[in-house]
Amino acid sequence: MSHLTTRPALRAVALVLLGSLVLAGCGNRRSLKPEPGKDLPIAPYGRGDRPSADNLLHAPVEAKPERSIDVRTRSEERADDPFDLPPEN
To answer: Which parts of this chain are annotated as the region Disordered (predicted)?
Structure first.
């Protein structure tokens, strides 16, 4: 009889290690290239050069703004809203 079938904890550890090894093999560290027969997008208006695939992955600061400072930390009473009107029907 195998040692893995007699000890369920050892079997679970072996499965976790095997699963993590399989997932680690899925990572790819090469530079990105378009599929054969396809091309990268054209250069944006006003830009002289065409951005590379790696440049397209990095969003500019304007595309991902940070949170504003006025995040509420506790609930507060809402101010009266003059445009909060009931339906006409």
So the answer is: 27-89
pLDDT at 87: 82
As a whole-number percent, the residues of the chain with pLDDT over 90 amount to: 0
Q: What is the mean pLDDT of residues 26-48?
A: 81
Pairwise CA distance, residues 83 & 15, whole Å? 60
Contact 24, 34 (CB under 8 A): no
Residue 44 has which token pair? 């944006």
CA–CA dist 89, 78 (Å, integer): 26
Q: Take residue 70 and report the two structure tokens written for it.
A: 């006025």
